[in-house]
Amino acid sequence: MARTIEYGTEQVVLHLSGLVSIGALKREVSIPYKQIKKVEVEDFKVSLLKFRVGTSIADIRQGRFLIENQWCFVSYENHKDVVVIELEGHEFAKVAFQIDDPEGVKARIEAHLQ
After folding, report:
1. Which fold, 3-113?
2. Fewer beta carbons within 10 Å, N or C terminal of the chain?
3. How far, CA to CA in Å, does 33 sit from each of 44, 75, 78?
């Protein structure tokens, strides 16, 4: 898979590879657990017209998107069942990505928050 998660003791790291990393113009996003406000699995549709640094073709979104005057990192080919991490004090207000077993990823991140 083009996206994998690494669960560290202090942070979670989203790794991107292949065409996904090229489209997103980024190979990884590090997220300290202390900056995570909320984790959800949801339908996260981003308009083709949003200002971006990355790729936006059909339903594919890869890269940094300006959403409600805040930078968000988005990486998906299908906007349904996307893991969305809401952040505070991070370069991104949200990190949203598609991955196998989104509910399991959500539960594992939440377990590190307790």
Report:
1. PH-domain like (2.30.29)
2. C
3. 22, 20, 26
